[in-house]
Each structure stands twice: as structure tokens, then as C-alpha cells.
């Protein structure tokens, strides 16, 4: 069941997302986190709330969705570095409680299976998601099996182009593969919070909410999840009936 919340713009979407997220920031909870431009406003609000109200993350665990293959954690565009820069370094979550899949190692598939085992031991209470302009969630591109676990994947051409902006607008610098939680992994989260803003997400939002449940739009599987909140701004909602 998708609970759709329409707001005006990115700032309002971030306010609303924080309102939803805040309920999960309590001892023992497990947060599923995302990277990209979408969650930045939410992370700023989480940091502000921690600094001003002392909301503590000492007994919270987190699992991120994905990581580029081949980028060391010291690379500024690695998702590990992103999470530290934008959230972890500014709150009191213990480093050992945070998990970002590793994009480096001898056997990435074995590491991916281990990641799913860790999540199975600490089921995610709320999974934060953005959506790709092609309907991807995490790096599950169109055609990914709905029952997939964490795995290594090739990035779609459109995703490589979308992410070029983080790599000096140089397409040759964008990694072409990622380790990603699978759609099956994401669907196991107890609640899901997806934020979509901007006109370039409008078609994906329409397909996710009004389209058939089809692997062509990975996010459409969320129609089958029992507890999903989707926050959209006016631009992202512009194609909805
Ligand atoms: C990020 C992730 C991706 C992004 C999506 C939207 O961890 O898994 O699926 O959520 O590509 O990216 P932005 O927010 O940059 O538009």
C-alpha cells in the first residue's frame, strides 16, 4: 500500500521526510539509508535535530543501499565517504553500527551475500529510497528480478549519465558497476520511505504508482509492500492522474 504525500518543493519534501524518519530515531532501531541528491535535505534536518535537541543515534544501526565498484572509501564520491560527510560525522552513531556495502574485494558476490545475512539478523525498520529517472531503486535497474538479493550490477547508461555530475561531468570517470541491495532485500524492510522531487522523476513516479507491477519499472514493486510512504513535490507529481 502506497501512502502518497504531495508537497510543494524539495524543502517541504525534506521537512515531511524528517517528520516520518523522526519516529524511527530511537534506541534499537535499524535505518536503511540512501545516497544521492534526494536525501541531503533530510540528513541536514537529522543533523540539526541531533545538535539542537540531542537526539541520539548511539543505539541505532544503519545499512546503506549501495556502493560503486572499484572506488576506495577514501574517494570523495564513494558512498562511504558521502555518508560520513553528510551524516555520520555529524551525529553520534558509532562507526561499527554503520554499514555501507564494500565495492572492493576479491569476492564481491560473497561479500554481498554476507551483507544480506547481516541485514537478516538486524531487519531494517525504515528504508529510505530515492528513485532513478529510469525507475530504479538502489541500483536495481530495469529488468532486475524482484526477488533479487544484494548483488553486483552494471549501471544503466542513463544512470551513468545522471551521475556524471558528481564526477567532473566526465562520463569516463563514472564507475560502471555497483554493489546494490536487491529488490528482495529492500522489500523486507518493515517500512519504506521514498522521496521523489523534480521534473526528471515525473515519469518514473507515474510508472511506480499508476503503472503495472513490471520489472521494467523496478519501483513499481513497492505497490505490493504493506507500508510505503512516497513523498513527491509538484514537479515529480506532474504526470500523476
Ligand atoms: C542511492 C541510490 C539511488 C538514488 C537514485 C536517485 O543510494 O540507491 O537509487 O536514490 O539514483 O538519485 P538522486 O537522489 O541523486 O536523484
Describe the structure in your own words.
By secondary structure, the protein is an alpha/beta fold. It has one domain (2-229): Rossmann fold, CATH 3.40.50.1360. Helix content is 29%, strand content 17%. The chain has seven helices and ten strands. The chain has helices spanning 10-22, 40-53, 79-86, 108-121, 157-163, 183-187, 202-210, and strands at 2-6, 30-33, 61-64, 66-68, 98-99, 126-129, 151-154, 177-180, 191-196, 228-232. The strands form two sheets. Strands 1-10-9-6-2-3-5 form a seven-stranded parallel sheet, with helices on both faces. Strands 4-8-7 form a three-stranded antiparallel sheet. β9 (191-196), α7 (202-210) and β10 form a beta-alpha-beta unit. α1 (10-22) crosses α2 (40-53). The longest helix is centred in the N-terminal third of the chain and has 14 residues, at 40-53. It is globular, with a radius of gyration of 17 Å. It starts with a strand and ends in a 9-residue tail after the last strand. The model has no long low-confidence stretch (mean pLDDT 97). Fructose -6-phosphate binds at residues 34-38, 65-66, 130-132, 136-139. Residues 34-38, 65-66, 130-132, 136-139 line the site of fructose -6-phosphate (F6R).
